[in-house]
Design a protein that fits this description.
Length: 136
């Protein structure tokens, strides 16, 4: 009888692997954000304001997991793209990450953003790109 109970417990423990925990949301956090591009502002009349930051749909970027010293962990870089509304949402293992905008024909990437996600936490970022041919 003990052998059967021990076998059942071992089978149950084997089923609760780290991959199963990540899939269930255990030990994960959520990163959400938008991708924006600075298109510049045309010369405007005095008192007229301009917000040069516009949504940038389908913008490409990478996310890399970082070790405790802040260095990139080999093999963890993923290439991603924002959706048609310039938004993205990712469920990631708890830890530190570097999010880096990638350039394209119409833009170049802005600065990278370091984030830390704890278990059950969330972070929201705005990932900036710069137009290669801004309006003036």
């Amino acid at each position: 009888m003990r052998v059967v109970i021990c076998s059942a417990v071992l089978a149950l423990l084997a089923a609760v692997t780290p991959a199963a925990l990540a899939a269930s949301g255990a030990h994960t956090g959520t990163l959400t954000g938008t991708t924006k591009i600075n298109t510049g502002c045309p010369v405007a009349d005095e008192g007229v304001s301009c917000n040069p930051w516009k949504p940038l749909p389908h913008a490409r970027f990478t996310i890399t997991r970082l070790n405790a010293q802040g260095g990139a962990i080999a093999g963890t870089t993923r290439a991603l793209e924002s959706d048609a509304d310039a938004d993205f949402s990712l469920r990631l293992h708890a830890g530190s990450y570097l999010v880096t905008p990638a350039g394209s024909n119409e833009s170049r990437g802005g600065g990278s953003i370091r984030i830390h996600l704890g278990t059950g936490s969330s972070a929201t970022i705005s990932l900036h790109f710069v137009a290669t041919h801004p309006r003036v």
